[in-house]
Amino acid sequence: MKVGLDVGGTKTDVVAVDAGGAIVGRVRLATGWGPEAVTATVIDGVRALGTDAGVDVAAIRSVGIGIPGQVEPGGGRVVHAVNLGVDELDLAAAVEPVLGVPVRVENDVKAAAFGAYALHGGSGSMAYLNLGTGIAAGIVSHGELWRGARGTAGEVGHISVDPAGPLCRCGQHGCIEALAGGGAIAERWGRPGALPVRDVFDAAEQGDPAARELRSGLARGVASAVRILVLTADVDSVVLGGGVTALGDRLMADVAAELAASAEASPFMRSLRLEERVELLPAGSPAAALGAALVGAARDSEEALAHG
């Protein structure tokens, strides 16, 4: 039995995966704030599989954790997880003695890429594009994650596609994240609401000019990310996940229209059939937690799918 956790800014998703790859238990709990509370969340999440999901915790042989921030490849230390109140934390060292099994830690988007790849069939090449508060991607080809020379492969959110566009938190103008990130859209919308991006879509359909501009920018940003991922890595498919994808068909229709419009004048772009290579991760999919479980069970993160 292997366990995976997706530690998010507000909620943590925990799954238990049996030897055949089936998810046999799943629980969710609130994520604590700060290093000690995050550590407690991980420990409580694993224990909750036994108390709340009926999993035999004695059968657990490994734990993998997907978490925001920068994670040293093959290590257990996370830094700059600002949404969790964590500047630096050796999470594996903190929880291994308590859980009594090997623990591996991976960046949450990279873990989600592993999980999405497994759910997608585990063959060929795929980019997982996470549309959440921020924008980032993980690229998996034939079971291996492409990290790049310094681990920044897939950081498409901070590619500027409009030098005259809105200011991004990274200091550039017109980054994909500034156009399509949920946090940037909510900030520019500036109106109270539980789901600001959904509110923007609703207002755009009612003719609000500010909302229409934001909605158009979101589609342009996502379509730009898709084009970049295909043109640089030539992946078979781009799978969209993250909180913004709760918009479902409304988001996909906008992105497809943007991709089609950009291909009208270019036979080359039309030949790439980008609209056919983009799809949504199924709603409620535990991709990040599943990917974390695969990472935790592997001797090396790069073997997560080949041997997970």
TrEMBL record:
It comes from the Bacteria. InterPro entries: ATPase_NBD (IPR043129), ROK (IPR000600). Belongs to the ROK (NagC/XylR) family. PANTHER family: N-ACETYLMANNOSAMINE KINASE, ROK (REPRESSOR, ORF, KINASE) FAMILY. This is ROK family protein. It comes from Microbacterium deminutum.
